[in-house]
Each structure stands twice: as C-alpha cells, then as structure tokens.
Amino acid sequence: MEDKIMQLLSNKIVSSPLFKIMVVDKDMNLIWCNKAHADMFPGEELVGRKCYETLGDTKVHKGCPTCVALGTGKQVRGLYDFGETNSQIVTIPLGEGLVAKIMMDVPKNADGRLELFE
Q1: Count of alpha carbons within 13 Å of 93, Cβ hemisphere only?
Q2: Is the distance from CB of 17 to CB of 32 less than 8 angstroms?
Q3: What does each C-alpha distance from 1 to 5, 7, 8, 31 come to in angstroms?
C-alpha cells in the first residue's frame, strides 16, 4: 500500500499547477521541468537553459538555494521576492550532481483565502 500511496502522491505533486518543479545539474542547467514551470514560458524550450534564465535573470541569484543545496548536499527552503509575487522555494539534492527545485508562488497580498485548482 505504501508504494501505491507514494506513486499517487508523486504523480499528483508533479502534475499540480501549484508546484513549479525543475531539475538542475551542477552547472545550473535545467535538465527537466514539469508542465507548471514550462507553462510560464509558452512555446519556449527550457531544457538546456540556465535555471536562473527561466526565472527571468541573467546570473545566479544572491543566496541561490540551488547553489546552496549543490554545495552542502542538504535541503534548502526560503521565501524569495520576485516582484509581483513571492515564491516559497525548496531545493532537494537528488545525488549525482542534480537538485530538484520546487517553487510555489505566494501573492504579496496573501490574505488566507482559499483558491481552488483542478
């Protein structure tokens, strides 16, 4: 039963529109992303680009959680300001020089109201 729950949970998280997920290598190249992250850039090829480029920047962000996770081998989380929204970011080292970066946007005017998603 536990394997089935893990599979169901994994599939729901990866396919959720709430979680923008990418896998980044040690050189900060995006090697995979889920649909929610890709939907931020319709028609653009993201695989092979630098992680920070897919977040609208030209260089690594100060305090980059992906860099910290790669350097320490530990999970990292933080709230980052991206202008109109904040993003809660969690980075999880996967081994072999790879890090999963999971982002969830948090509106600046968050008021505790529920938003429903499919």
Answers
A1: 14
A2: no
A3: 6, 10, 11, 31
Which amino acid is present at 8? L
Where in the chain are the domains? Answer: 2-107
The domain at 2-107 falls in which architecture?
A: 2-Layer Sandwich (3.30)
Distance of CA 5 to the CA centre of its chain: 22
Helices (H), the chain: 2-15, 35-38, 65-72
Tokens found for residue 75: 């999970």
pLDDT tens, residue by residue, 67-102 = 999 999 999 998 888 777 888 999 999 999 999 999
Beta bridge partners of 33: 22
Question: Could you give the C-alpha distances from 81 to 22, 42, 71, 109, in angstroms and in order?
Answer: 19, 23, 23, 13
This prediction's pTM: 0.85
